[in-house]
Structures are given as C-alpha cells and as structure tokens.
Amino acid sequence: MASETHHTAPTQFAEVDGVRYAYRRLGPEGGVPLVMLQHFTGNLDNWDPALVDALAAEREVVLVDYPGVASSSGTPADTVAQMAQQMISFTVALGLEQIDLLGFSIGGFVAQDMALVRPRLIRRLILVGTGPKGGPGMHGWRNDIETHARAAVPTGEDLLYIFFAHTETSQAKGVEFLGRFLARTEDRDVPSSLASRDAQYDAVLEWGIPDHGALQRLTGIQCPTLILQGDNDLMIPTRGSYLMAGLIPDAQIRIYPDAAHASLFQYPTEAAKDVNEFLG
Question: Most buried by CB count within 10 Å: which residue of 136, 148, 190, 200?
C-alpha cells in the first residue's frame, strides 16, 4: 500500500445503503487517515498528484467520489447536509472510527457539516478554498465563473479560468497542474454527469442563501481547524475564509499569494507541508 502513488493506486468500491462508493487509498496505514472531499463535479483524478503524493508520504490518504458522481453509483445529493450524511456513511462502510478531513470548495461545505454533526469522527479539519453557510457572497457564483464551472464538457481553459488567478504567473502554474493531473493513464475515473453537476449547484445555492444566523454554526466546530485559501478567490470570496477563521474556536489560516480558488494545486508542495505539519 505504501508504495502506491496517485497514478497507481487502484480504484476500489465500498457498498453501503445501496450506494457503491468509488475510492482510492494510498500511503502508510496505521495512523488516523486523511479523507479528502473533492470540489464541484470533481472526481478521483481531479486531485493534484503532487499534492496527494506529498500527503501520502506521511499518512494514509483516502480519496472518494460522492454518490452519483463519476464512478460512484446512486443519486447525487442536492443539499450539503445530504452530502455530509453520505460521506459519514462512507466512513462507516470503511470502518473508519476517527479521521482527519480535508474539504476543498464544495467539499469544504460538506466537511463543515460533518464536523458539526459527527464531532467525535473528526480529529482535525482542513478547509480549502471554501466558505461558510449563509455568508456574504456565497449565494452562487458570479456569471463568468458559473459559465465556466457549468460547461457541459469542461476544458482545461475552464479550469484555468476558475482555479487560478488571472495573472501570467498563476496561469503558468495552472498549466503545470493540468499536465500533472492528466498524467494518470490507467484506470482513470469517469467524468461526472450533467445530473450531478446540476444537483451539486443546487447544493451550492442552498448553502449560500444569505443567513447571518447560520454563521453561528461555526462556533460549534470543536476540532482544531486549518483554513487554506488564495488571496483572490474568484469563486468563493477570500473574505469568507477570514470569517470562518474568526468564528471557529480553534482555527488558523494561511493565505497563499497570487492565487485564486485552487491555491492547493498552485502550491502543492507548500500546501502539503502546511497540512502535514498541522496534522502532525
């Protein structure tokens, strides 16, 4: 298991509640595993191999597709609360009694809910490129971002537009990321369906309905939390990360420069170091 990499770890399946979850495990067994929850319509292969391999050098990493997304069967959830319950069921299916949890983008919404409804499950929490329920600027995405994010057949150009700052330096790092994440050739995950795209955007919109009271939920997150974000996220406003850092009782925040939504893919070495140090 320890010798597997992002490119070679086999896709496995776990069945619970009539859903067949597609997942991959890599890295040394024995400690608290790090479960990673993916972005909007993302699948197992949308993670940056450089990030995953650097994390898996020090701990067991578990990647998973939400139900109805890519290689997982079932019906895609249209609320974050439902997605959180699905991911809790997945941890039960794998017999994981305690996990560290990293949620990126919509995965960060799900991770917040999981930390609130299953506090004993989560040892440490990492929220990346994400934002709080009901927070300002969270009710859907600006038009240009939505157009690229909801493309029927997403392209590399769409990812570069959404994920990376609109600067030459950040876009160049984005092109490097595209080369890395397309490098796996065997047993690649299948693309997500339009039905899962639409269900997940319903979940995004419901999560973002302005609700000042919902922000108080964050004060209930009991585990130590690390917040990672780019200094100018065009999809989920960076100010939301500062808001989360102020409301979660035991939170620290790291902002990466010249970066947008996918700071963890622009700075995979630095992000992995920050996460490994936080979890260690």
Answer: 200
